[in-house]
Amino acid sequence: MDAITCSMYIFIFYLSHLQQTAVADNSSYIPSENIVLNCGSNTSEFVEYDGRNWNGDIASPYVPSNADTKSLIVRAPNTRQTIPEVPYMTARIFKSEFSYTFNVTPGPKFIRLHFYPASYLQLNISNAFLSVSASNFTLLRNFSVSLNADYLNLAYFMKEFIVHVSESVLELTFAPSYNASDAYAFVNGIEVVSMPLDLYIQGDYAPLPLVDHSNVVYIYNGSAMENFYRLNVGGEQIPPKYDTGMFRTWDTDEVYILGSNIGIQPSNISMPVLYADKAPPYSAPADVYRTSRSMSPFENGLVNLNYNLTWFFPVDSGFLYLVRLHFCEIDHDITKINQVVFTVFLNNQTAEEQFDLIAWSGGPGVAVHRDYVVMVPQVIEGKQDLWLDLHPYKDSKPMYYNAFLNGVEIFKLSNVGDKNLAGLNPPKSFKSGSDVKAPRVAKFNRSSKKLKFILIGCGLGAVVLPILLCLVLFGLKVIRPRRVMSWCGLAVHTPNQIEKSKSSFCLHTPNQSEKSKSSFCRHFSMREMKVATNDFNETLLVGTGGFGNVYKGSFDGGATYVAIKRANPMSEQGASEFETEILWLSQLRHNNLVSLLGYCNEDGEMILVYDFMANGTLYDHLHLRNRDQDHHPLSWIQRLEICIGVARGLHYLHTGTKHKVIHRDIKTTNILLNHNWVPKISDFGLSKEGYPSLVTTNVKGSIGYLDPACYQSHKLTEKSDLYSLGVVLLEVLSARPAVSQCEDDEHVNLAEWAMLCFENGCGEQIVDPNLEGNIVKECFEL
Ligand SMILES: *[C@@H]1O[C@H](CO)[C@@H](O)[C@H](O)[C@H]1NC(C)=O
Ligand SMILES: *[C@@H]1O[C@H](CO)[C@@H](O)[C@H](O)[C@H]1NC(C)=O
Ligand SMILES: *[C@@H]1O[C@H](CO)[C@@H](O)[C@H](O)[C@H]1NC(C)=O
Ligand SMILES: *[C@@H]1O[C@H](CO)[C@@H](O)[C@H](O)[C@H]1NC(C)=O
Ligand SMILES: *[C@@H]1O[C@H](CO)[C@@H](O)[C@H](O)[C@H]1NC(C)=O
Ligand SMILES: *[C@@H]1O[C@H](CO)[C@@H](O)[C@H](O)[C@H]1NC(C)=O
Ligand SMILES: *[C@@H]1O[C@H](CO)[C@@H](O)[C@H](O)[C@H]1NC(C)=O
Ligand SMILES: *[C@@H]1O[C@H](CO)[C@@H](O)[C@H](O)[C@H]1NC(C)=O
Ligand SMILES: *[C@@H]1O[C@H](CO)[C@@H](O)[C@H](O)[C@H]1NC(C)=O
Ligand SMILES: *[C@@H]1O[C@H](CO)[C@@H](O)[C@H](O)[C@H]1NC(C)=O
Q1: Closest residue (by CA) to atom 8 of ligand 6?
Q2: Ligand (nearest to CA of 59)
Q3: Of 135, 247, 248, 625, which residue is 20 to 30 A from 470 by alpha carbon distance?
Q4: How far apart are CA 421 and CA 51, in angstroms?
Q5: Does the model's pTM come out above 0.85?
Q6: Where are the membrane-spanning stretches (predicted)?
Q7: Looking at residues 448-462, what average pLDDT do you find?
Q8: Where in the chain is the domain with CATH 2.60.120.430?
Q9: Residue 649 contacts by C-beta under 8 Å, 6 or more apart in sequence?
Q10: In this structure, are residues 361 and 285 in contact, taking their beta carbons and an 8 Å threshold?
Q11: What's the gap in Å between 281 CA and the centre of ligand 1?
Q12: Where are any strands of DSSP class E within 503-576?
């Protein structure tokens, strides 16, 4: 057999093997028990959201015959919020121990408890501390529904447990946690749904390695679990009725991503998902596998070596957690081993050093899940964050430096000794007690939408930077115009001249761009915007411009500040800039580019939400300080660092993306400084994708920064940005505006003037007097 026949044979064997084990993506599980109880109700109602009939528990076979004497049937008082009628508007209240008894088949069951904290019968909800047990497992103990709702910032929520039933009866017991006349417990809804035996427990009880320990952990039918997170990474929320028959909810992941480095969200909606033995068809809906989040695909991902793709999940201390990661290769060009390899870290420890999905799955479109157990020690009481980091594995020299994830599930495991799953209540939040609190109302969605935007630093190696700076300075010199034109003749952009073309702004094909726009950044509601800005209060105004007003907004009662840019409805440029800004900023991620957190387009408004830049614009620090005593002149080191940061950001725009991006409006008012003085390039309203020889009929930019070469040739290249950057550097050095007016009303173009000075060998003349003595003489020998 020659080599070709041999490899053909292996290929055919591989294909047939794949067909044997992989099945179509729609064979979902049919649960043997699917009990859905609307507590405190006597009717049966269909709920569209989860596609099931919820039966009232009154006169149901699950409550004891003397239920009336042991519990109270109550209705929640009406509120201004719209709370779903089923199951949240009715409840059963327990003043003493009360058990529901379900006759079920033996095996693992989901137990889901639904809670809506309200003042039932004028009882004080702060006194409701619940203990709940099932099959001798403590599910909840001293559990305060109201403290947990405050912590999650949700009006109502659900808790999901998994318990193994050995006999054919499941007893679910509720009780108040302490003995006092005002103590009580309650529940609004109960679900008991069965699941395949091997969904979360491997049939052969294979031990799972404990991350960062030599021990292994057996997850067997004697363990109970509580689901903390179940996320469709990079995709939309999947409601219970679209789960694989077990009515699980899959939430979006974006609120759990650390920092602004959220990666990109590749998806292939038409892709058939092949389920093999590494993920049976009921593991997760196909849509979980069809969407993902990955690092930057540009330049084979070299820049990714500087980052981690990081999520963090608040969990209870002192428990083991089962972390299940779902993977599926969406990119059909990735078919071989060692094309993408990455390391999985859990809580900063290596969980899997070299994860190569193709080696696991055999090819694109094949679903796989991997389980890890991690210990979250009791170093602090209460909640702490469980970290998940993905990082390209450099040592195997893969073809692309990338990492990705399609789905994640996190479960708390019961303590073996005392069969306990109960953690501590979250601390009383600062907000509770005040009347302004308006909990978010979400459909069965219990994910913590706490906004935690933490910036993480990242960047190019230190070696590259001096070179870059030199290049930029050199660039300015090289493209310096021979004949200096008067700036007066240049076309200058005025607000109503902005062109309306949008299609050329998309890096994606047009039909994808619509989707990417909606899924890449978060959509905020108008109400959230009003709360954050105190109804667009004038006192929070931090800037105004052609686009509209910029407000300093706050979330979480001042824990997080954001800049909220609200388009002036009168501004014609608004709609186009709004679109362009979202399109660009949702695809570009760099420490030196301003990060767009989301947008709001309700009520005909156009609002953009950015990270708040505490130190304002570079322009303010260079030019306004003379008028404002609060501004101290920037030191030479600060200025250099700012210039290096801007150069990095620009370098990323020009080389770090698939298609070159030309900013076209680099100037000191568009360079923002955060609280650490890290510069961020902003305002992408004029940006364009740079084709090799893009000819533009419409030269735009700002006076004083516009490259005369571009103006003459009408050719748009990244050199135009470099010219503008050169002007910014001169501005930083001299603290003079790009265009200034002298006494005799003549306009002085800074670039022109500085070049003259350098040519005459008196470059020092332009230096900001505040910097005198700080710069060594050699620096001026260009
Ligand atoms: C499942 O897939 C098969 C073939 O792929 C199709 O005929 C059938 O209608 C699908 N069933 C559902 C419920 O989507
Ligand atoms: C359900 O309860 C309500 C109020 O308790 C009562 O008016 C109604 O008759 C009951 N309906 C049935 C079918 O039992
Ligand atoms: C409910 O109880 C808490 C603490 O026990 C108390 O601070 C609060 O004022 C009470 N609320 C009402 C409405 O009585
Ligand atoms: C719970 O524990 C008691 C006593 O230890 C035992 O008799 C009972 O069978 C257990 N129940 C279940 C469902 O395991
Ligand atoms: C766990 O599995 C063992 C062996 O299959 C069985 O004997 C036992 O009854 C099971 N226990 C539960 C709680 O399901
Ligand atoms: C409450 O008191 C009763 C009777 O004294 C006792 O049986 C029960 O265990 C007590 N419950 C708690 C949570 O202390
Ligand atoms: C999407 O899935 C289809 C069907 O498997 C495949 O042919 C196509 O190449 C995939 N698209 C990409 C971009 O990988
Ligand atoms: C993991 O690293 C991050 C960032 O350095 C740190 O904030 C976090 O506390 C660490 N987590 C653990 C569990 O050590
Ligand atoms: C990625 O995360 C791991 C684990 O926390 C950490 O050791 C490593 O330094 C991180 N790498 C980068 C580039 O941040
Ligand atoms: C119950 O929870 C409350 C609120 O977190 C706490 O103050 C109290 O000490 C807890 N009680 C017990 C017995 O753990």
Answers
A1: 179
A2: 2
A3: 625
A4: 30
A5: no
A6: 453-476
A7: 26
A8: 34-195, 206-413
A9: 590, 591, 592, 593, 679, 680, 681
A10: no
A11: 13
A12: 522-523, 541-544, 548-555, 560-567
CATH of domain 34-195: 2.60.120.430
Crossing angle (nearest 10°) for helices 464-478 and 718-734: 100
Is the bond leading into 364 cis (omega within 30 degrees of zero)? no
Pocket probe for ligand 3: among 119, 122, 125, 126, the residue whose CB has the most ligand atoms within 8 Å is 126
* 8 A C-beta contact, residue 284 and residue 367: yes
- The finding on whether 425 has its CB within 6 A of some atom of ligand 10 is yes
Instruction: Note the ligand closest to the C-alpha atom of 58.
Output: 2
**What pLDDT band is residue 150 in, cutting at 50, 70 and 90?**
confident
Is 658 flagged in the annotation as binding? no
Indicate if 333 belongs to the active site. no
Place of tokens 């940061």: 645
181 lines ligand 6 (CB under 6 A): no
- Structure-block tokens of residue 230: 């179940």
Residue of 665, 683, 707, 768 marked catalytic: 665
Q: Provide DSSP, 189-212.
A: EEEEEE--TTSSS-TT---EEBTT
Superfamily holding 522-611: Phosphorylase Kinase; domain 1 (3.30.200.20)
Q: Domain spanning 206-413: which CATH class is it, in words?
A: mainly beta
pLDDT in tens, 313-347: 999 999 999 999 999 999 999 999 999 999 999 99
CB atoms within 10 A of CB 402: 23
Residues with CB under 6 A from ligand 3: 124, 126
- With tokens 């404002």, the residue in question is 628
Percent helix, strand and coil across the chain, each to the nearest 5 = 25, 30, 45
In this structure, the residue with its CA closest to atom 10 of ligand 6 is 179
Give the pLDDT confidence of 270-321 residue by residue, as tens digits.
Answer: 899 999 888 899 999 999 999 999 998 877 888 899 889 999 999 999 999 9
Q: Chain-wide mean pLDDT for the chain?
A: 78
